[in-house]
Amino acid sequence: MRILLTGSNGQLGLALKEEFKKLGNVFEVISTDYDTLDITNLEQVEEKLTHEQVEVVINCAAHTAVDKCEEDIENAYKINAIGARNLAVVCEKLGAKLVQVSTDYVFSGEFNNVMVEDIAYEDVLSERIERAKLSRPWREDDGVAPQSIYGTSKLMGEELVRSLCHKYFIVRTAWLYGEGNNFVRTMLKLAETNTELSIVGDQFGNPTYAKDLAIAIVNLIQTEYYGTYHGTCEGTCSWYDFAKKIFEIKEIEIKLNKVTSEQFVRPAKRPFYSSLDNFMLKLNGLNTFRTWEEALEDYLDSEDR
Ligand SMILES: NC(=O)c1ccc[n+]([C@@H]2O[C@H](COP(=O)([O-])OP(=O)(O)OC[C@H]3O[C@@H](n4cnc5c(N)ncnc54)[C@H](OP(=O)(O)O)[C@@H]3O)[C@@H](O)[C@H]2O)c1
């Protein structure tokens, strides 16, 4: 099977290269990144994919700097939407399969439940924590309503892929960490110079190890189960819970303060609740994801080696 990776030096791209390496000769992998294949250039995409006679394209290229996207709007849409379109058009011509990686930010980020009016909450943080517990993780067929440029541009990418090629797997993931700059590394770095940290406690999602996502994608491309999937580690937590677990595993003593989104304003609006249910993977018997805690232990262990 001839597979082409775009954005292959990013977190997911590196994890996929590692997985394919373990699997040996079954897959011939052509790794590209911005310098060898700019996905926003249709001619380049057509030339490369045709020349390489690819059977599968895994699009790991994206504009992932969520806050920067708010001002770098043109580039966000060019990379996240037009880039996906270019790959879809050429994959359709070649009869190749396309994996388009997408995001939990396509959802509104509101809590997925009805407000329980008669419970008196101590404060807004306690109320949001309670509402998260009562929420149902988003399934693939739930309505989308992105709240940021990153989210809208990724959604446009999804829609273009759906309308322009047949053999697609759209895989929405979230809170990704692997080789590269990520939340885990940021926390550990901050702990070197701080004895106390304030972490957002009212945004909930699924921390996902890039290795686990890579395994799920490798399984999917060997099927003809086309469609839209959620692919995240199992379980929901807040950024505060995530940080707490990182320091627990690493046995680092540090004081953590739980703060609200209002106390940690950023240029792009963040979802309160974007936990995903891997419903379609489960239906197809392909949900290989571990709990986020197990995956995190594995990741931290691999970082120590
Ligand atoms: N990271 C997360 O928390 C997260 C959450 C949900 C979904 N996702 C999705 O998961 C996928 C993988 O994310 P990631 O964290 O692995 O991303 P990443 O580490 O930011 O890697 C993205 C890669 O794409 C490359 N790239 C940018 N513009 C390109 C272009 N025009 N042509 C070709 N390559 C280009 C980047 O190269 P340069 O570095 O040279 O720009 C980089 O190597 C993306 O679709 C992302 O939207 C990520």
UniProtKB/TrEMBL annotation:
UniProt protein name: dTDP-4-dehydrorhamnose reductase
EC annotation from Swiss-Prot or TrEMBL: 1.1.1.133
Pfam families linked: RmlD_sub_bind (PF04321)
Source organism phylogeny: Bacteria, Bacillati, Bacillota, Clostridia, Lachnospirales
NCBIfam families tied to this protein: rmlD
GO biological process: dTDP-rhamnose biosynthetic process
Domain RmlD-like substrate binding: 1-302
PANTHER family, sorted: DTDP-4-DEHYDRORHAMNOSE REDUCTASE, METHIONINE ADENOSYLTRANSFERASE 2 SUBUNIT BETA
Role summary: Catalyzes the reduction of dTDP-6-deoxy-L-lyxo-4-hexulose to yield dTDP-L-rhamnose.
Enzyme class name: oxidoreductase
Metabolic or biological pathway: Carbohydrate biosynthesis; dTDP-L-rhamnose biosynthesis
UniProt superkingdom: Bacteria
Family per record: Belongs to the dTDP-4-dehydrorhamnose reductase family.
A GO MF label: dTDP-4-dehydrorhamnose reductase activity
Source species: Holtiella tumoricola
Gene name tied to this protein: rfbD
Gene Ontology cellular component terms for the protein in this record: cytosol
Keyword field: NADP, Oxidoreductase
